[in-house]
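Entry: F-box only protein 25
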Amino acid sequence: MPFLGQDWRSPGWRWVKTEDGWKRFEPFGAALQGGNSQLNDISHAVILTGDDDDEMYASEDCESAAKKRKKDHCRNNTDSQCFYRENWIYVHKESTRERHGYCTLGEAFNRLDFSSAIKDIRRFNYVVKLLQLIAKSQLTSLSGAAQKNYFSILDKIVRKVMEDHHNPRLIKDLLQDLSSTLCILIRGVGKSVLVGNINIWMCRLETIRLWQQQLKNLQMNKQVNDGLTLSDLPLHMLSNILHRFSDGWDIITLGQVTPTLYMLSEDRQLWKKLCQYHFAEKQFCRHLILSEKGHIDWKLMYFALQKYYPKKEQYGDTLHFCRHCSILFWKDYHLALLLKDSGHPCTASDPNTCLMPVSPQHFIDLFKF
């Protein structure tokens, strides 16, 4: 029979034919169907018989009780409340007849599966950098659910670092930036820009300081291995390893291991290639630093230039954006032949020609309107 829904895009109500005519029936949610099968059967039986008014009232009571239990279930279920586990989302920037509103930074942060991404060593640095940029300037633009998700992911990152002792310096920088931002927002600006009770944010700030103390006291376990060590490698292989690093602090840290590595880490050609990788030649001319012998001090040049210009970012894996269908996704996510191995449900004839990698800063810029 024809019917009108609450909204013209909605499929409308479900109607059940009884002896007294058509009656509206609203099925229970998928989460409650298994646990409330008995209640579901009772409701069906009452609606289908419908011989007297008492039974009709009973059906309405069952229906309202089911709605209340469904609300309580969703309220207690944290995952269904705000966190999703998706590998791609559609980025829409304006309202249409088919879709109201637009995709926000908080919505994208909630729906994309960053919790699983931090478990992948190729994506770990990418997620940490994204969280750091959000901490510096975009924390107040997140919704309450997104802020809760932000600190949940951050907690998982800290636990991971404490367990495997990998990349503690990145997390220390992230926590320092986040702590500075929260101090300014809580003391300087006030709770008007923060979602939630101010006491919750004070507790979060204390948690951040506790994490910082734990990372400060982190002790690296010395592994005992009777086999081949880094010091046993020939000089040309050690030099090749140092030339693979894209961060100057990693080179300095490795140079503190042995005197041989320290000597290799001070090589002028090593720092020259590092400067050429991150910065342009015009930038060299503006910030020339000479040594006592009159040569260019490339090591000091590197740290001077990074204060004025951004370094080239390098990640093992990043999010990708499809220009054809405006979908943001993790590229290596596949659903067999349905997704044509492109990582998302693309309708283009050759999806790979429409893809572009998305840096953490570009991710944030996508949602600026």
